[in-house]
Amino acid sequence: MPRAFFHPLAEQDLKDITYFIAQDDVDRALAFAEELEAICQKRALFPAAGKACDHLLSGGRCFPYKNYIIYYRSVPKLNAIEILHILHGARDHERIMRDEHYGH
After folding, report:
1. Tell me: the pLDDT tens digits for 34-88?
2. Separation of first and last alpha carbons in the chain
3. Which of 58, 63, 73, 100 could potentially form a cystine with 50 if both were Cys, beta carbons 3.0 to 4.6 Å apart?
4. CA-CA distance, 29 to 59, in Å (whole number)?
5. Whole-structure pTM value
6. What is d(CA 47, CA 7) in angstroms, rounded to the nearest whole number?
7. Residue 23 domain boundaries
């Protein structure tokens, strides 16, 4: 079965999002983190369904979830997708993605 795994940058994004929401509501923060993880696992079933974002990442794709954009790439040899970043829509995605390096 296809799966999603998280690049360390995406893991940090998830922690940061959870921490930010937890400032107001810990239960909602934990539930939202679970939602994000679940939606990423569902996307692994249909990796080509995301929007191509080659201008930010060669072979990369993205999709929205609530106020966030989730960036990922397909890893066919692992039957998986790698979640690269989870960014709030108001952030400067081009700068962030340009400044990162995603080795295999």
Report:
1. 999 999 999 999 999 999 988 888 889 999 999 999 999 999 999 999 999 999 8
2. 21
3. 63
4. 31
5. 0.90
6. 16
7. 3-99
